[in-house]
Specification:
By secondary structure, the chain is α/β, with parallel strands linked by helices. It contains 12 helices and 22 strands. A hairpin with a 5-residue loop joins strand 4 and strand 5 (39-48).
Length: 460
């Protein structure tokens, strides 16, 4: 039975204390009705005896303590899920904002889903093609993986996120069974409009579920947005058998909202003012991705975060790196050179890349060319540094070839247009083209039979 209370005692920012409540539970959804009939939503943060602390999803302005009433709904925040979600745009609370009708719900799901049980996990081992060479060729994304992108403010991570969402696909028989769930967290209206228009322009909207939370929306809604997206992804993956790619941008805005709410609750702050449970909170989101035994669908996650002051040791990228299987790092130096996307290949890492490449997945030569390209680029960068210190005359002819390789690698392999969608075969062939700049004797990480088969023959 839903009870109404007129016992609101005090309001402090987004928090409100209600006295003399009965049978109220943590995370329960509630509605506040103002004297003029306006309804605002909130959720229970804490229950102490017969007192409850609730958190408002909207502004507390205009709430009259004595005349307003609150009713607890008996369930947590839920999302209406259905196969009709594909092609739709929602706000951070799961309400449609694209002018279309409300979703005809097949079921309502608690957005605070549980992290996947490790015993129920299936190992990620199937390739996902993003169409971006620096990811597909060198830091391969595998179905069921969590692979974050670490960016800096001002770098083109929004354009990269949109490009991945447009181009990503699985190869083989499951190609038609692929969907993208995109959650934009704490972004400006211009960015939100960019994502919506970009997906519509390319037709990618038809297989995308888009959640947008704007910077002027309440902080508590920012905390709910990624959970809304993951709830939609879980339904599509494990009920509809789809392969879902979840892109969350920007996790830094999410963590800032968490810090804001924690400060309002007067909790003891942890490192840099973030709550001590930031690691646990991020893990409860990230660990909802993966593959389940006995289920055909999968959830692959790309969280995108901007590192404050480009600092990899900042709590948000630091803790994210502990939970996820690698990271793609964007470089300010490459961006200044005009390389786009400016993926810094050497510190980037996909811990599962070896599981998603090879015969039947990409091509037999993928692992060897990947290792050779890494090694050659690393040597080339070292030689360029030596050249800047000692001069070109101090380098041997082979050293100069490596230096030239590093320049060509950045210009042709890492850099590609925002609308350039390369297949993995095109990426591998481009890698061989670049390796042909080096003496054949230097290709020590690739099997001789692959060199004979794939290395372009030099004329003359």
């Amino acid at each position: 039975m839903i009870r109404e209370y007129r016992t609101i005692q005090e309001i402090n920012g987004p928090l409100m204390v209600v006295r003399k409540v009965q049978d109220v539970t943590y995370d329960e959804l509630a509605e506040i009705e103002l004297p003029d009939g306006t309804v605002r939503r909130c959720k229970v943060l804490e229950v102490n005896g017969d007192n409850a602390v609730v958190q408002l999803f909207e502004s507390s302005a205009g709430i009259n303590l004595s005349q307003s009433k609150i009713r607890f709904l008996g369930h947590p925040l839920q999302l209406a899920v259905s196969g009709d979600m594909l092609g739709r745009v929602f706000n951070g609370m799961g309400r449609p904002i694209d002018g279309g009708p409300d979703i005809m719900a097949e079921e309502y799901r608690d957005i605070n889903g549980l992290p996947m049980n490790p015993a129920a996990r299936d190992y990620p081992n199937e390739f996902i093609q993003t169409g971006i060479s620096s990811i597909d060729g060198l830091n391969t994304l595998v179905r069921g993986q969590k692979l974050p992108i670490f960016s800096g403010s001002g770098l083109p991570h929004a354009a990269l996120a949109a490009q991945i969402a447009r181009q990503a696909k699985v190869l083989g028989d499951d190609a038609a069974n692929f969907a993208v769930v995109f959650a934009a967290i704490g972004i400006t209206f211009e960015e939100s409009d960019f994502f919506v228009q970009e997906f519509r322009r390319t037709g990618a909207i038809d297989r995308t579920v888009l959640f947008t939370n704007l910077a002027n929306d309440p902080a508590v809604e920012r905390i709910a947005t990624p959970r809304m997206a993951l709830t939609a992804a879980e339904y599509l993956a494990f009920e509809k058998g789809m392969h879902v790619l979840v892109i969350l941008t920007d996790i830094t805005n999410y963590a800032e909202a968490l810090r804001e709410v924690s400060a309002a609750k007067k909790e003891v702050p942890g490192r840099r003012g973030y709550p001590g449970y930031l690691y646990t909170d991020l893990a409860t989101m990230y660990e909802r991705a993966g593959r389940q035994l006995g289920k055909s669908g999968s959830i692959t996650m790309i969280p995108i975060l901007t590192m404050p002051e480009d600092d990899k040791t900042h709590p948000i990228p630091d803790l994210t790196g502990y939970i996820t299987e690698g990271q793609i790092i964007l470089s300010r130096e490459l961006y200044r050179k005009g390389v786009n996307p400016p993926v810094d290949v050497l510190p980037s890492l996909s811990r599962l890349k070896d599981k998603g490449v090879g015969v039947g997945k990409t091509r037999e030569d993928h692992a060897g060319t990947m290792n050779q390209l890494f090694a050659a680029y690393s040597t080339g960068k070292e030689n360029k540094e030596l050249m800047s210190i000692l001069g070109e005359a101090a380098l041997s002819p082979t050293d100069l070839q490596y230096a030239k390789f590093a320049d060509e690698f950045e210009k042709r392999y890492v850099s590609q247009g925002v609308d350039e969608n390369r297949s993995v075969i095109e990426t591998l062939d481009l890698g061989w083209e670049l390796l042909s700049l080096l003496p054949k004797a230097e290709l020590k990480r690739i099997k001789p039979e692959y060199i004979e088969k794939y290395l372009p023959k030099k004329e003359g």
